Amino acid sequence: MKALQLTGNKENPLAFVELPMPEPKAGEVLVQLKASALNRRDYWIREGMYPGIRPNVTLGSDGCGTIVKLGENVSESLLNQEVVINPNQNWGENPIVQSDEYTMLGMPSNGTFAEYLAVPVDRVHPKPAHLTSEEAAALPLGALTAYRAVFTHAEVKEGDSVLISGVGGGVAQFAFLFAQTIGAKVFVTSGSEEKSQKVLDTGAAGAVNYKSEDWDKQLKKISGGFDAVIDSAGGDGFSKFVRIMNPAGRIVFYGATRGVPPKLDVFTAFFRQVRFQGSTMGNDIEFEKMLQFIGDHKLKPFVDSVRPFDEILDAFEIMAKNTQFGKLVVRF
Amino acid sequence: MKALQLTGNKENPLAFVELPMPEPKAGEVLVQLKASALNRRDYWIREGMYPGIRPNVTLGSDGCGTIVKLGENVSESLLNQEVVINPNQNWGENPIVQSDEYTMLGMPSNGTFAEYLAVPVDRVHPKPAHLTSEEAAALPLGALTAYRAVFTHAEVKEGDSVLISGVGGGVAQFAFLFAQTIGAKVFVTSGSEEKSQKVLDTGAAGAVNYKSEDWDKQLKKISGGFDAVIDSAGGDGFSKFVRIMNPAGRIVFYGATRGVPPKLDVFTAFFRQVRFQGSTMGNDIEFEKMLQFIGDHKLKPFVDSVRPFDEILDAFEIMAKNTQFGKLVVRF
Q1: How many C-beta neighbours within 10 Å does residue B43 have?
Q2: Cβ <8 Å between A234 and B279
């Protein structure tokens, strides 16, 4: 079977390889992938900028496919079911934070950029019925990360004023969908007027270009202040959020593409009882709740494009340029 | 009656004045103070370094005294009761954060550095029976701030590994007492070996001098890592806490005497799902719970010294030098 692996060769970091068909062990199922999707994580791994990477591993955390073979001790009823794969491995006992043994599908263990993948039976969940295979493949890591950030950590509820920064990002777009669905007033930032317009067209309460000198003042003006901010940029902007928060506001951050905040106005933060909450991925219960939420509300992920698996390297190039709006999906 | 007021004169910012006896209005009680205590807040006000200060206001947030006169619509049974005064005014409806109308006794309204004070009847609570008037007067603002920081925000529980930074401070000492009483393993920092030793003598699990170059590494070594940190220093040290936190650790900050943190390792913070929580004072329910907790566990505050009200300016001088260990109390 065909798979996309990290080579360890800097000039050609990714290559298609031919691998033996995986054999499901006891308690496992063999999934024939119908679609996979890229995450920023895959891109960082390609760039060699992710902790603990090693060559000859199949990348990919997101996938949707059909169960075509069962290991021992797996119910026959699962055969031929179409499923979404939970990329978490060994989250551990504490729902609040992952264990030291936690890893994710697609590095260091083989992932979803392959025609077949064997996973433990508790990693698969029925595909939401209202979604195509390509749409369902767009969910796992991004929607999980957004679900935890928006609901578990930012505790977003109906009527809240919420800011999603960098709404071009995959997690950010799920965060936007989730916050909006629950009835929050959702504002966004983007460096692209085109992306802003697309989100405004789907109901955002307002959008500001973060390249503007006074983006923070503009946001304050149009929103009145935020109960929650969901951010993955960090950097200088992070410090500015503090002054546009409502009292007891929550700033949840799941990345820092612009580096560490150069300073933090802790004076305003303590007087207003503002919270900064680090967040990453989500636990297995959150994964199930996320699928349930998407099913209950018949949410559709933003999908930029779907291309054949053979052309997945093109998807990596689009991610490098950051011109996509929505998930980059490949089909098998 | 005699009171200590802010003069508005920079050279002599504080002065004793003779004021008419306050008259309790309907729903109020007149308290004859038996003891008051200083907070760092009083010192900042004297220095002109507090927002919204104005002259001709009696300072003081902490006080314990006897109800000697009742306004209309107040139960006769309260007469002659000894009470602790809750310094909160208009916290508001939201338990999570104070309202815009929130103020505190002792600026902008007259406070407890006076022989008599009239306050609404819902501001007074019976003095914990196991405490002297002087000990009870040491509680209000410091113990309230610590209670919220330790329990509401840091969610400290039995078995947690907790760091209280700058344990010479009034709030820090209450935080130490509370965390220890609940069964946490409590580590402290101080710039004074003498203060560290005193806290070690009362059961701290370990102490490190924050003037050491490698205080953070020392703390990590003796504690293994922290589930919660209670801090009011901010500055460079704040950034270092991130790397000595256990996963899902909570850093609660209620001040920043060393200024804003110059940079913050948000990468470690999001991967470990660390929380930074601003905190200040506490709500009225927390005030009652704090008194209950102190009563249930028969806790005694650290009291540095008790002096006559006439000598309160000496207490301000001690606070300026920061040589005290425990609250600076005055008696009437």
Answers
A1: 18
A2: no
Neighboring chain A residues of B265 at a CB cutoff of 8 Å: 260
- Cα A55 to chain center, whole Å? 23
Distances (CA, A) of B118 to B22, B41, B84: 6, 21, 13
Do the bridges between strand B14-18 and strand B2-6 make them parallel or antiparallel, or are there none, so unpaired?
antiparallel
Instruction: Sort out which chain B residues have CB atoms less than 8 A from A40's CB and list them.
Output: none
| Interchain contact, A280 vs B269, CB within 8 Å | no
Residue carrying the six token digits 């049974």? B77
Top residue of B266, B274, B286 to mutate, by most chain A CBs within 10 Å, is: B266
Tokens linked to A21:
């068909």
Distance CA B73, CA B103 (A): 25
Please state, in angstroms and rounded to a whole number, the distance separating the CA atoms of residues A130 and A33.
19
Q: Tell me how far apart the alpha carbons of residues A301 and B188 are, in angstroms, rounded to a whole number.
A: 49
3-state secondary structure of B207: strand
CA pair distance B148, B155, nearest whole angstrom: 9
Q: What is the pLDDT along chain A (332 residues), one digit of tens a residue?
A: 999 999 989 899 999 999 999 999 999 999 999 999 999 999 999 999 888 899 999 999 999 999 999 999 999 999 999 999 999 999 999 999 999 999 999 999 999 999 999 999 999 999 999 999 999 999 999 999 999 999 999 999 999 999 999 999 999 999 999 999 999 999 999 999 999 999 999 999 999 999 999 999 999 999 999 999 999 999 989 989 999 999 999 999 999 989 998 888 899 999 999 999 999 999 999 999 999 999 999 999 999 999 999 999 999 999 999 999 999 999 99
At A114, give phi and psi (nearest 5°): -155, 155
Q: What 3-state class would DSSP assign to A210?
A: coil
DSSP string computed for B258-292? T-S-S---HHHHHHTT-EEEE--S--HHHHHHHHH
Q: How many Cβ pairs closer than 8 A exist between chain A and B?
A: 99
Nearest-angstrom CA–CA distance, B108 and B106: 6
- Using an 8 Å CB-CB cutoff, list chain B residues near A269: 253, 276, 278
CB contact under 8 A, B278 and A272: yes
CA distances from B266 to A101, A189, A238 (A): 21, 20, 10
Return d(Cα A220, Cα A244) in angstroms, integer.
6
Contact A266 B262 (CB under 8 A): no
Which of B153, B251, B270, B283 to mutate to probe the A interface, most A CBs <10 Å? Answer: B270
Contacts of A96 in chain B (CB under 8 A): 248, 273
pTM: predicted TM-score of the whole model, two decimal places: 0.94
Considering only CB atoms, which chain A residues are within 8 Å of B266? 234, 238, 253, 256, 260-261, 278
Structure tokens at B221: 């070594």
DSSP B55: S
**Cβ distance of B276 and A280 shorter than 8 Å:** no
Sort out which chain B residues have CB atoms less than 8 A from A94's CB and list them.
247-248
Complex-level ipTM beyond the 0.90 threshold: yes
The whole-angstrom separation of Cα B240 and Cα B260 is 13
Structure tokens at A317: 């190039």
Structural domains of chain A, with CATH: 2-139+301-331 (3.90.180.10), 144-278 (3.40.50.720)
Residues B278, A256: C-beta atoms closer than 8 Å: no
Nearest by CB to residue B272, choosing from A256, A275, A278, is A278
| Alpha-carbon dihedral sign for residues A305, A295, A170, A117 | negative
The residue of chain B with its CA nearest to that of A95 is B248
Nearest Cα of chain B lies from the Cα of A176 at a distance, in angstroms, of 20
